[in-house]
Request: fold
Amino acid sequence: MNASTVRTVQKPKPNYETIAWKWMRYSALLLIPLVWGHVLLQDIIVGVHRIDLDYVALRWASIGWRTYDTLLLAFAFAHGVNGIRQVLRDYIHSPAKQKWLNWGLLAFWVVIVAIGGIALIGGVRTIP
Amino acid sequence: MQINLKIFRYLPDSGNKPHYDKYVMEVNPTDRVLDVLEQVRADNDPSLAYRRSCAHGVCGSDAMQINGHNALACKVLVKDLDSTDITIEPLRGLNVLRDLIVDMEPFFDHFRSVQPYFINDSELPADGKERLQSPTERERFDDTTKCILCAACTSSCPSFWADGKYVGPAAIVNAHRFIYDSRDTAATERLEIMNEATGVWRCRTIFNCTEACPRDIKITKAIAEVKKAIITGKLEN
Reply:
């Protein structure tokens, strides 16, 4: 019996579906440490009952935590939006409408992450 | 043993709405569901319509829903249903032509769309005979050669119910059979077809197809392998 071999064939050109599928998986890989880190810190190490305004101010004082929270928002929301896309695809069958759906949801994700990112990283103006 | 049988009935253009006929029957526990249907047709109602051919689980003609699960009527014994209430309905996702007979044409259209035949236009080997393949290379796609096109898998798939344009598990299984055949040269073309919006990406990996397959083909695994081949361009033999 011959040893196993690998044949290489020309890959199809990536399309929206391929990119979305890869994105769902790669973003999940990034989400695992981000979500577990968040849950461990907020719910176990600190504990939800000790989260108060001072703690929020402490976290907000660090650009690292603000970036962390923005990444968490971006990847978690992307994951959710792609899930919504899959569900809506069951009801939207016309290719033209599916294209609108794809780009519309992408724009929705960009807008929400931009607003969240500006609020988190940009911070808030303190009232004098 | 006595069973309470419910059979879906529908005759388009008859003016009657789809309904269920009910029968209380004496059957043997070792009777197959197909035997029960034959008994109904012989003793109660000769107008009952269903497909059957070999009656031995090879031709794939008599796929239907038996107590909500897709199966071949000729492979399911009454005693294995674990219930004396038996409901028989046509496959989902395909239009009913009459009683338990569905329109298989959309299913076969998807099957044909993946080029389910051997393609190799290169010169024959020097001896002018067959293109050889090692046992390992043949083993690679053995599982997906078992498909009998009964449609039990495709008609159990919610993605197919929602969008009939999705090629469905059976078409992907048959694409897999040739994509992974070391002698075939059209893997790229088939991967292109599989990469379309109506191709493999509609699969949500819920394993309904694998559970429904009367030939025990690992369908969800085959679909995952085709997805991997699209992403990597590598076909592991």
